[in-house]
Amino acid sequence: GSGSNDDAGASGSSGEAAGDVKIGLVTKTDTNPFFVKLRESAQEAAEAEGAEVVALAGKFDGDNEGQVAAIENLVAQGVKGILITPNSSTGILAAIEKAREAGVVVIALDTATEPEDAVDATFATDNKKAGVLQGSYVKAALGDKEPSVILLDGTPGGTVDTFRHDGFLEGMGLEEGAPEIKGQENTNGDQTKAQTAMENLLQRVPDANALYTINEPAAAGAYQAIKSAGKEDQIVIGSIDGSCTGVENVEKGVIGATVMQFPGTMAAEGVKAVVEYAASGTKPSGFTDTGTVIITNTPIEGVDSEDTTWGMDNCWG
Amino acid sequence: MTSRSTETVPPTALKGARLREFIRQPLLGPLTALLIAVVVFSVATDNFLSTGNLSLLLQQSVVIGILAVGQTLIILTGGIDLSIGAVAILGTLVMAKVGLAYGPVVGLLATVVVCVAAGSINGVLVAVLNLPPFIVTLGTFTVFFAATQLYAGSQTYAAIDGVQTALGESLDLGVFMTTYGVLAMLAVYVVVWYMLTQTATGQHIYAVGGNPQAAALVGIKTRKTLFLVYALAGLIAAVAAWAAMGRIPVADPNAFQQANLETITAVVIGGTSLFGGRGSVFGTLIGMLIVSVLRSGLTAAGVDALYQNIATGILVIAAVTLDQVARRRAA
Amino acid sequence: MTSRSTETVPPTALKGARLREFIRQPLLGPLTALLIAVVVFSVATDNFLSTGNLSLLLQQSVVIGILAVGQTLIILTGGIDLSIGAVAILGTLVMAKVGLAYGPVVGLLATVVVCVAAGSINGVLVAVLNLPPFIVTLGTFTVFFAATQLYAGSQTYAAIDGVQTALGESLDLGVFMTTYGVLAMLAVYVVVWYMLTQTATGQHIYAVGGNPQAAALVGIKTRKTLFLVYALAGLIAAVAAWAAMGRIPVADPNAFQQANLETITAVVIGGTSLFGGRGSVFGTLIGMLIVSVLRSGLTAAGVDALYQNIATGILVIAAVTLDQVARRRAA
Amino acid sequence: MSAPETNPETVLSARGLVKRYGSVTAINGADFDLRAGEVLAVIGDNGAGKSSLIKALTGALTPDEGSISLDGRQVSFRNTLDARAAGIETVYQDLAVIPALDIATNVYLGRELRKPGILGSVFRQLDKKRMRHEAAGHLADLKIGIKSVTQNVETLSGGQRQGVAVVRTAAFGKRVIVMDEPTAALGVRETGMVIELIRKIRDRGIPVVLISHDMPNVFAVADRIHVHRLGRRAAVVDPKHRDMAEVVALMTGALEPTDEEKNGGA
Amino acid sequence: MSAPETNPETVLSARGLVKRYGSVTAINGADFDLRAGEVLAVIGDNGAGKSSLIKALTGALTPDEGSISLDGRQVSFRNTLDARAAGIETVYQDLAVIPALDIATNVYLGRELRKPGILGSVFRQLDKKRMRHEAAGHLADLKIGIKSVTQNVETLSGGQRQGVAVVRTAAFGKRVIVMDEPTAALGVRETGMVIELIRKIRDRGIPVVLISHDMPNVFAVADRIHVHRLGRRAAVVDPKHRDMAEVVALMTGALEPTDEEKNGGA
Ligand SMILES: Nc1ncnc2c1ncn2[C@@H]1O[C@H](COP(=O)(O)OP(=O)(O)OP(=O)(O)O)[C@@H](O)[C@H]1O
Ligand SMILES: Nc1ncnc2c1ncn2[C@@H]1O[C@H](COP(=O)(O)OP(=O)(O)OP(=O)(O)O)[C@@H](O)[C@H]1O
Ligand SMILES: [Mg+2]
Ligand SMILES: [Mg+2]
Q1: Please, are residues B236 and B188 in contact by the beta-carbon 8 Å criterion?
Q2: How far is the CA of D43 from the centre of ligand 1 (A)?
Q3: CA C253 → CA A234, C86, C140, C152, distances in Å?
């Protein structure tokens, strides 16, 4: 709901009072705790800055039409800036370009666009780096054991999914298609799907000892399957996200290590940048890495990490 | 054609037939619901009724609006098409990839061929093998979707400007800015309306949906009619694919995943029976507009996405309730 | 009960009725399809027929298998339930959150209350307001789903061990390891089979689905029957929610989003007509197993996910074709 | 149009019933009287409104105007269940059978028999065997050549279906039995059986309303004949005082009824 | 069972038709002969297999055994379309009307009239006005009280629906017209109209097969009577040589047919 009543069209002019600043937030979906955190942080930051956030979302992961419609509607409502977690597709670029032509500053959160300069600025996790961190931890935890790797990916073709996947393999020191990779399934980052996939994979790869997971729900699902098969002590599980549930799971020993990212920072920085633009006309630019940290209670020599106590203080969701 | 001589013509009942025909197609309920929604949002929000917003609303409805016509045809025969969105997406990828290789016009033609072929596969399975449409199209949905992913290598392909994005071009009607896509959508509605109400094929579609056994006994080629409808839905999906490229100039194998449910919703809110044989394509247009207006109006009112979902769910049920009440009045 | 005296009893036709009744429920087609699938995969892969794999297959089918029973009941009345998965998920969240606050038993009871209430909302809209089930349950699906997200704050909640995960406990049958969830699923099938075939309520469900006008004229309380079916589907969703917590001890507001399509697929493959009035709950069990066997067998054969989808799509259609052929033979 | 008479021997009566469908008036101020223990035939042209009248009397249709009384007390049936609860059983013209269910189930639909003992009371198990047995018995009486009561109704011939609907009604009616063209699809012999059945029902003391186009049979069984014309009762005649030709003439309007006949007969 | 006769005056004939449904044998070695320019009545008990026979003759059902010939040439109709293409039009017992479509559309279903000129040939536009006009004319002849041909068939009374089905068939039959109990739901006057219509059709030179349980009308219009019993032809009798009681006795098996009658009559 809105208290303010801003009829001003989308003009590029600067110097308006911050209290009139309307900011649009477009996430991929509205049902993922990560996006919920983005929304909440954006709203908090906006309140602090005296701005207002209108949050919209696609209907499913990959809903270009939904994101494009959201951008169009936000521009029609006269927002000053749009924060968006863009779908991997280039499908929304035209809409972003139109919005920018209308004088709206567009900032990508969490996921970069392709090309990156389709937006004014990007505040995101370096997902490749996050993947490398996960891979290097798992590799270190295996020690000198011969790796037998299972990959639980997200959605085929997703930008973030690809970065994490490639980063993990780089961290493990493996090539795509290496014989050490014994199995791969897509889970859409869904716990149920991950559990089913892992159950089936374990039938085929009973000797697996290293597991890549696209996110923490996938890791939790996989763990359930691993536990049923009695292989908890055989497999090292790595993950990415840093949600509070995920950190708890690290503490419980469900996940060996997870790479934390910081959605709160992304959203807060984004809101500040729009408010700044509204006040001074200065547009943000470039890619800002909002940081990644390994969380584990079994730190390994040579890999920087924090423990779960620190994790619980900094987690999201 | 043999027919007995007809000296005796009853003086009655040829008058007013047109009007009664219109009212009998029970559009009154959906229309009322649409009007109420428009009025409420105009009063409740500042910018809902702006021409800019209404123009946007129409543009955002084009792809689903076109697909819903194909869905109407299929539902009128007592079937259902869960593959309709997947066929359109396959169409966009063929348009982009073949277009890249052989030029946009060839790409467009290839899209038509592929979409009609996809529709025809459904048609053969339903009409010739006599399988339940729900299972057939669920199966082909899975197949077409996976085939699209494989064909695209899970990549997106940008449109080559020009022919491919023609339906996205703006059109200034003086008071109103719109796109050729919106006109194309309206054209599809008019053509199919004409077919359904003014030609024998249309009457056969209603007959096959209303009572397939009886239709066969009176000598309608039920299989041919069924096949035709599914092939036609494929053709309409090709038009939707073209409009989709105009709207978002990128072929994305993951787009429009909810198209099936959204088109079915538009059809049912528009008063067409899922049991077949009763309904109209203009009902579908209204049904589709009702959902678009709700979405757009709630956004204009600044309602957050989750609450918007709840509101849409409730309002859709309310719209159908209104329709039900109106029909009982009319009876 | 008044009935005329019946001195004259025809010597015919009371024998063999049971067997004919079984065959008339056209389970032969689906059964054959299932057998073929099992044989093919046993030959084609090494580990498909291992007890471990079969046990997994059953465990993975439990939640959808239970929900499919509710879906069968609703489809038998000529309806459809798109909200069935959303109700079950809401159930898991209530179980976890109320369980956290008041203990697991209260949580379980709360789940039953909430799920039955959710089913009853559908029931009132369909039975009393006479709205089309497709739209009603699509609307309530949206509402229940969004409400679950709001209730959960889009977070997942872990199960408290014990009562909540009881249906996930393993059970050693000597040759075969299974879970209590699998037994619960079978129990739901048996109970509903009994209701459908051995009680008056069951006959009324068939009658209401077969010809609602006639059912009303012969004095069946059609509204009561319809309402009961939707409420019962809610109760079954509560059982499914319990089983889901046993299988994956986390209440996740985003789980089981494809449950609706999957249950409908199982019902239709099992030979139940989407037009209502014809079908059986054991058909659904077989239909569900067919899909599970296909998935599991293709996984065991090491087929990639996308190709698996294509194969599943084609095989599902093949299974239904087989059923169709078997039925024509029988006729 | 006067208030319903409280004639003690009148079981079911109606005054001034009206039912409109848009521009069509199916019932146009119809009166109706059924007396205790009689067979009342209702005849009239196609589209005269006979079925609509019967539907209004049995709760299948709610009249726009007019009143109905049962045993002198005014009633208003909201649906067929209400009418059945009051003991009125009806064979509708469109039969109201469920094609996909078997014959025995159709006969007992809505008043199934349960097994004796705990199986029936607690587990509510149907006594299918008994229902099949008794349904077979009832149907055998009609001699319509049904071989097995476990056949689905959709596999029956037109006449056999009608037989199923007739048997159901005859077996369960307590207060009034109404049959809308019960013999339309029946053969000569089967029609005879139904006429015989109607006599037997009357002899049990239950009055019967019989709608039929079959004049010889109407004259064979009816105590009084209600002539319906243009949506209302045109006359009630005594078959002993009028012959078939006269009744047909009354039906088509070629002949004017006497004042007494116009007012509902003696 | 001999090969179909090639009697030059026989239009439609069948030999040894068999159709089984599981344990039920609906047609059990039936023969059939329709001669040019005659009205052939087919009578028999309920469930005797009359409708099944007619369905087999008109492509609505594929017999398991036996042969059918039209004009002396053996034919095998895969569906009703084939039979219609050969000029055989049928009123089926269950009417085959589409409830949700209007009367005019139902009458012309499958052979719609198109507008003259380019509208009809290129745009394939229906000539609704003409179809309504002509359908109204045909129906007016039957006097079944239909007020508007733009009414949906589902709003018609039972008899009116039957009238629509009869009109459709009568208007379009070219070679043979078959009517399965066309007057079952019709009133006295309306039945008279249909019988009159059948006579007119015969006078146009088109032979008619009439299935009916209504003996007086059968005797009024039929040139020959085919008696069906237990799934096969029991006799073909000449109504001028047999009275109603005898025919009914033949139907029920109480009377034995003469050898000539057994073999298909004179
Ligand atoms: N639902 C309806 N909508 C419109 N008209 C209707 C409806 N139901 C009945 N009618 C009309 O009311 C009139 C009376 O119909 P009804 O069925 O009562 O006649 P009937 O006397 O039983 O005729 P029949 O002897 O042919 O059965 C008919 O003209 C019919 O078209
Ligand atoms: N699809 C079917 N399945 C099983 N039995 C059938 C089927 N169709 C017809 N029969 C049976 O075949 C027999 C003949 O039916 P048919 O309809 O031909 O009789 P009919 O002589 O037309 O009777 P009526 O005078 O009652 O119309 C009946 O006993 C019927 O039950
Ligand atoms: Mg009637
Ligand atoms: Mg018959």
Answers
A1: yes
A2: 14
A3: 31, 9, 15, 7
Residue E152 C-alpha from the chain's centroid: 24
> What's the CA gap between D24 and D17, in Å, rounded?
15
B256: left (phi over 0), alpha (psi -120 to 50) or beta: left
Place of tokens 């073209």: B242
Most trustworthy range by pLDDT among A297-306, B36-45, C67-76: C67-76
> Which CATH code fits E10-99+157-262?
3.40.50.300
Predicted pLDDT of residue E182: 92
Chain C interface residues (partner D, CB cutoff 8 A)? 1-4, 6-10, 12-14, 17, 20-21, 24, 194, 198-201, 203-204, 206-207, 210-211, 213-221, 277-278
Q: Partners of E176 in the beta sheet?
A: E88
Contacts of B187 (CB under 8 A, 6+ apart): none
What does the alpha-carbon distance between residue B50 and residue D47 come to, in Å, rounded to a whole number?
Answer: 55
Tokens of A162: 């690809």
Look at ligand 2, atom 17, and give the residue with the nearest C-alpha: D157
Q: How many Å apart are CA D184 and CA E185, to the nearest integer?
A: 6
pLDDT higher than threshold 70 for residue D34: yes
- In chain C, the N- to C-terminal Cα span, in Å, equals 36
Is the ipTM higher than 0.90? The answer is: no
Distance, in Å, from the CA atom of B142 to the CA atom of C298, rounded to the nearest integer, reads 15
Residue E80: HSE in the Cβ half-sphere, 13 Å Cα cutoff: 20
Residue type at E260?
A: E
What is the whole-number distance in angstroms between the Cα of residue D144 and the centre of ligand 2?
11
Q: End-to-end alpha-carbon separation of chain D, Å?
A: 18
In C, minimum Cα distance to B268 occurs at C135
* b/e per residue E78-116 (b: at least 16 CB within 10 A): ebbbebbebbbbbbbbebbbbbbbbbbbbbbbbbbbbbe
Q: Please tell me whether residue E175 adopts helix, strand or coil conformation.
A: coil
Token pair, residue C123, equals 């029931």
Q: Provide the pLDDT for residue B327.
A: 66
Four-residue CA torsion sign, B38, B41, B44, B46: negative
Return the closest-CA partner of residue A138 out of A50, A256, A5.
A256
Nearest to A213 by CA among A244, A231, A188, A196: A188
pLDDT band at B302 (very low <50, low <70, confident <90, very high): confident
> 3-class SS at E14?
strand
What phi, psi does B212 have (nearest 5°)? Answer: -60, -40
B51 in contact with chain A, both atoms CB, cutoff 8 A: no
pLDDT of residue B321: 84
Q: What is the dihedral of CA B202, B203, B209, B215, to 10 degrees?
A: -130
Radius of gyration of chain B (CA): 21
Look at residue E21 and tell me whether its pLDDT is greater than 60.
yes
C232: exposed, middle or buried (C-beta count within 10 Å: 0-12, 13-18, 19+)? Answer: buried
What residues does E90 pair with on adjacent strands? E178
- Under 8 Å between Cβ of B308 and B299: yes
Q: What single-letter DSSP state applies at residue D153? A: G
Q: How far is CA C278 from the centre of its chain?
A: 16
* pLDDT tens digits along B9-39: 333 333 444 554 444 456 777 888 888 889 9
**Contact A169/A135 with Cβ under 8 angstroms?**
yes
- The answer to whether A218 and A238 are in contact (CB under 8 A) is no
Residue B328 has pLDDT above 90, yes or no: no
Ligand 1 binding pocket (C-beta < 6 A) is D 21, 24, 26, 44, 46-52, 93; E 155-160, 185, 187
Listed in order, the ranges of chain D carrying CATH 3.40.50.300 are: 10-99+157-262
CA distances from B214 to C52, E95, E168 (A): 52, 8, 13
pLDDT given at position A84: 95
> Touch between chain D and chain A (3+ CB pairs, < 8 Å)?
no
